[in-house]
Specification:
Oligomer: single chain
Order of helices and strands: HHHH
Largest sheet: none
Number of helices: 4
Structural class: mainly alpha
Radius of gyration: 15 Å
């Protein structure tokens, strides 16, 4: 139920899906650049802090709590970018 609240509704147009993929790609590319200079945990922590503050600013109190709970409940579903051999996971 909670995961469904965070998903984009199916009736959203293709433009919104493209925008979401576009901003993901841009922020990911920028993050990779930063990881060449800083430790990945520093980059991840910074992105996480920014994300949580954005959610706190834009969501209701209940929405914010549900979002954090959804993240916690999704722990087993989150995959790394690389496997144990350093190969990219698709």
């Amino acid at each position: 139920m909670q995961k469904e609240l965070l998903k984009m509704p199916k009736n959203k147009d293709k433009k919104k899906e493209k925008e979401l993929q576009d901003i993901y790609n841009k922020i990911f590319a920028e993050s990779v650049k930063h990881m060449k200079i800083y430790e990945p945990q520093m980059v991840a922590g910074t992105l996480m802090a920014i994300a949580i503050r954005l959610y706190r600013t834009t969501l209701s109190e209940d929405g914010f709590h549900m979002m954090l709970q959804t993240v916690m409940d999704s722990e087993q579903d989150i995959k790394p970018y690389f496997d144990d051999d350093g190969e990219t996971i698709h």
